[in-house]
From TrEMBL:
InterPro entries: HATPase_C_sf, MORC_ATPase, Morc_S5. Residues 384-522 form the Morc S5 domain. Keywords: Coiled coil, DNA damage, DNA repair, Endonuclease, Hydrolase, Nuclease, Nucleus, RNA-mediated gene silencing. This is Morc S5 domain-containing protein. Pfam families: HATPase_c_3, Morc6_S5. The keyword Nucleus applies.
Amino acid sequence: MRSAAVADVIDLSSDDDDEEPVPSTSTSSSASARASARRIVSASPRDITPYALVDVKPALLYPLQSPGVGGGGGALVPVKEELPVPLPVPLLAASSPSTKVAVPPPRLCRQFWKSGDYVVAQRNPDADAPGGRNRLRINPKFLHSNATSHKWAFGAIAELLDNAIDEVNTGATFVRVNEFTNPRDGSPSLLIQDDGGGMDPEALRCCMSFGFSDKQSDAFIGQYGNGFKTSTMRLGADVIVFTQNQKNWVPTRSIGLLSYTFLMGTGCDDVLVPTVDYQYDLATASYTQMLRHDQKLFSSNLAILLKWSPFASEAELLKQFDDIGEHGTKIIVFNLWFNDDGDMELDFNSDKKDILITGAHKKVKTNNADKIATQNYVSTRLRYSLRAYTSVLYLHIPANFRIVLRGHDVEPHNVINDLMYPECVLYKPQIAGLAETSAITTIGFVKGAPDIDVQGFNVYHKNRLITPFWKVANNSYGKGRGVVGILEANFIKPTHDKQDFEKSVLYQRLENRLKEMTYEYWDLHCHRIGYDNKKLPKASRALYRANQMNAGSSPPSAPRQLLAADIPTSSCAVPTFMNPALRQKQMGLKRNFDALGSKTDSADQDGVHSDVSQRRRFNGYRTLTLENDKLRGECLQYEESAKQLALKEQKLRSQIAEARKKYEQLLQEL
């Protein structure tokens, strides 16, 4: 029997790596299927589906003990049937015991939330247990159902950006997000590229599999080994990955295709991922095919890639490595999903410097300046603008790293710089068995409050934004309007899509504390943005209004109309703890404040004058403290960069020495 030409596919969940290959024991079923297919091809044109180009049904595959995905499978070989190349549509339905007719594949719905219907081709149930042992398979429909964890397209893109940010440890300096035109049909696709360390052939197969992740350090954002599959399948039906790596000083290039269109079009009952690899040949100074098994297997994989990817030739595939450099990864998501209105979900046309959510960026026409300011603020724009979302996605962008969106750098937006009268509040969660941890929350009024309708907390986890402008204070009377906060909460775990937190006890306690924090801040400072704060002493309220009148603000009879622009800007410079301890006692607040000296009743009656004098004394100390922390952080970054550069220098020297050694060996052989 001739050897089977099979795809070097990845079994995404198998744990039977130690199984021996079981050869095909009979050719009768294969011959019968080929004869049936020949009858189909010889039929009249009206009876032939344009996709019926193969002669047998899909093979049942199982992992061969060989270099494959560690712990999860490797190259797959057929048990009963050959796997033809390419695999257009092997859906053969029996209309009678002796006659088989071609059944056209179901048309792939381009709307993501309606594309979960999947039909598996008829297959032989006797081929379920290779070697007498059962094997867990993954139905291709799981790719769609798994991707539904992302309700928002930008959340899926953020997953891919996280992978690029994690590559900073391997020397990445940028991640590029852009539109890519599919050369087959001219349709827009999404391109995400970085110059990180790239992946070797084994790492690519782990990336394409479920649950494989070497990101166990707290320094990494992703740790589950599931983000690539969920994010790419949420954005489009198909994704092709190009990656170049120099592990062990041997440059390699690998290409992998995860295609829902391919699986659905062929009616496969398992997730198959064709991959091909290339290795640099020092003798010819070029990349040559890297045969993991044999030439026929490589050709099979390549044929599937050329059939179902945007590239029709091997030369076009390899040309995609031209702009990757010595190492890096390029991801192209094509056949992008449509929304319920039949329009492509990602809008590349409305703004040539941005990627928008189709239909979500339509602003309400209004002449109201307050509504216009609210619509233009980042809290509103991030819902539909990828540039706005990525500008606040990371609390701190690593040094010398750039996020390039459609050819233009994304400027980080620090929400702390938008705050008036900021304060820093220390929060220490108390729970049994939890190591002592804390989070510093910076809270204040957003510039333009209360006219601009914005409030909530930006909560980060390991430098990554999880909940943007989380509105914890929900009420109908406007208390908390304009109050915005920022904190990094590493003591609670985010959900798998990184768009929310797990609803744990710690999460509930944090939510309650942030709500209290909002109301406390409001009660102390709402008079600064024009509200009549009845919780202040009468003398302080009268004096504050008089000072505002002298400054040219609105009259006391209309405190709500007080403009934020009339408030002195000197109080917006640095976060401070502005209220005295006696006022804290009067209002029954839970906040902890630094002792700035003893306060008397007469000082409290002086109200605003005492408050201003305290602030002046404290601002100098607080400014120096913040500057010291900033410089310490920069020093740590420089030290880490120096270590990385030293390691890189050592690796390059070793690589040069190895190259010289091989060069001398080649000279001796000549």
